[in-house]
Amino acid sequence: MKATIDTYPIEIAGVKRDLTLFEIAPGVRIAVLNILGDTELVQVCAEELAAKLAEVDYDIFVTAEAKSIPLVHTLSMVTDKLYVVLRKEYKPYMGEVISAETLSITTGKPQTLFLDEKDIELVYGKRIVLIDDVISTGSTQQAMRLVMEKAGSNVVAEACIFTEGDRAKWMDIIALGHLPIFSDQ
To answer: What does the alpha-carbon distance between residue 42 and residue 107 come to, in Å, rounded to a whole number?
Structure first.
């Protein structure tokens, strides 16, 4: 017999999903959004974010791999803007990279974000919108901002599907919704 899984319901532009609750610390759970393979949800999220970004003057999107890649790709198609993906592992073909370290809540360990040498010229002097699926602690955003600063770019906006945790902390983020953190206390 299968165990009952606790979920949290969401709805974006009429598309509904039940997000699985996952324990990240004793007595603390988060609703896990995994958009990989969910083309219907990715499409509506991209369209909704594109509408929210319509008043922002920007040149290019930047995200960190991996779960946000379908979102940024679809945003690129909807808006006709380019995108760059910051990698989490260095590969020799990437050449002379720009990097910054982050600590992700979903991995629980330090990670380094790398801007491929081929993309440095693409973002230099450009107005950047940082994209993520969920912004929880802000550490990935901080690392993306640092990489863009080192690359000579100007971050003009940050956007995501959901913010998470302390809503007041994310007032400057363009988001489609907010996820609570679930505590047994």
So the answer is: 22
How distant, in Å, are the alpha carbons of 6, 110, 114, 118 from that of 159?
27, 23, 20, 24
Q: How far, in Å, CA of 27 to CA of 43, rounded?
A: 34
Question: In this structure, what token pair is assigned to residue 80?
Answer: 């006709």
Q: For residue 2, what pLDDT band results from cuts at 50, 70 and 90?
A: low
Domains of the chain: 38-177 (3.40.50.2020)
Q: Strands, DSSP E only, in 33-181?
A: 60-64, 82-86, 98-103, 110-115, 127-135, 154-164, 174-179
Rounded Cα distance between 49 and 43, Å, is 10
Mean pLDDT within 64-86? 97
Which tokens go with 103? Answer: 């600590």
